[in-house]
Amino acid sequence: MVTVREGASLRAVADTLHDEGVIRNRYWFRKKGQEAEVDRSIRPGTYLIPAGAEYEEIFSILQRGEPIREFTVTIPEGFTLYQMGERIEENDLFTREEFLEATETYYRVNDFDFDNEELFFSLEGYLFPDTYRFSIDESLESIISRMHNRMLDMIDEEDRAVMEEQGLSLHEVLTIASLIERESAFPAENERISGVINNRLDREMLLQIDVSVIYAYGEGQEHFTLVLYEHLEVENPFNTYQYAGLPPGPIAAPGRSAIQAAIYPEEHSYIFYVVGEEGHVFAETYDQHLVNVQAYREIQQQSEEDVQRIEP
Question: Can you give the pLDDT at residue 303?
């Protein structure tokens, strides 16, 4: 999908097509375009260029001036695949069920190197949260492919070298990143939370991360904020209060900051954290953690009392 701005030159169009991977040689494209006098008849709009299109076909599309109808969809960081399906359905193109079924098909026909047996949704965490422009005529396969490739673009060669050095697979990185994304209050603390996860894994401690319990109990669909004791007892490998190590896969779609934090965790000695007034408060010992928890409860109690005084 390529957008041609009003008044765009053939050079600008060639650069755009090259940057989007539509053409290999921008200079040859310009030469052929000038010979065909395309530079005098380019029409603005957003066009869907078929994969492997010849120059003559691209010239025809640009001169015909029949731009595709498109819509914009914003997928927030931390969305689950189920929520993505709901967002797609809100735009009246595909139903949530059609979207989820298409992601399962995409998993089956592509060469993914992880097992989906214990996953609620095979591509959970593998579609990047971003703002996308989709054609009204675009297929679900194309939509999913673009979102998946965008996720892969978030990890460069240097990142992959570090992952290999640490013995981390892409699946593990996205799993850790999804936990960070759902746990973190601010991007600034992502690397510190990643360090806590890393420390607990190194010490073979249970991760005991509430957001994984929510995901397990709601089977990737239901969402709530208050975790009760009954939730902690659910028998599912996503329940990090019951099962050691990482959950079997991501629990949401991580953004770039969370992905980078998963690859480059902060080095420290913290193994506990609890919500504070501004983000999380971290602790190296259980005793210090209990002090922080008590402080959090006092803040919560004070807030409730303030609300009660304000209410008529």
Answer: 54
Instruction: Tell me how far CA of residue 63 lies from CA of 5, 57, 209, in angstroms.
Output: 13, 10, 56
In the numeric block, which tokens belong to residue 249? Answer: 């896969």
Distance, in Å, from the CA atom of 229 to the CA atom of 246, rounded to the nearest integer, reads 21
For residue 207, what pLDDT is reported?
Answer: 97
| Distance of alpha carbon 44 from alpha carbon 280, whole angstroms | 49
CA angle, corner 278, sides to 277 and 279, nearest 5? 110
Nearest to 240 by CA among 212, 217, 204: 212
pLDDT at 173: 98
pLDDT at 275 over 50: yes
What pLDDT score does 246 carry?
Answer: 97
> Which residues make beta-bridge pairs with 2?
47
Give the least confident one: 37-46, 61-70, 72-81, 276-285: 61-70
* Tally of CA atoms within 13 A in the half-sphere of 187 that contains its CB: 9
Ranges of each domain in the chain: 2-64, 70-268, 271-312
Structure tokens at 269: 């000695």
Cα 39 to its chain centre, rounded Å, is: 39
Q: Going by DSSP bridges, is the β-strand pair 131-135/70-74 parallel, antiparallel, or unpaired?
A: antiparallel
Q: Are 209 and 180 in contact (CB under 8 A)?
A: no
User: Given a cut of 80, is residue 301 above it in pLDDT?
Assistant: no
Is the domain defined by 2-64 classed in CATH 3.20.20? no
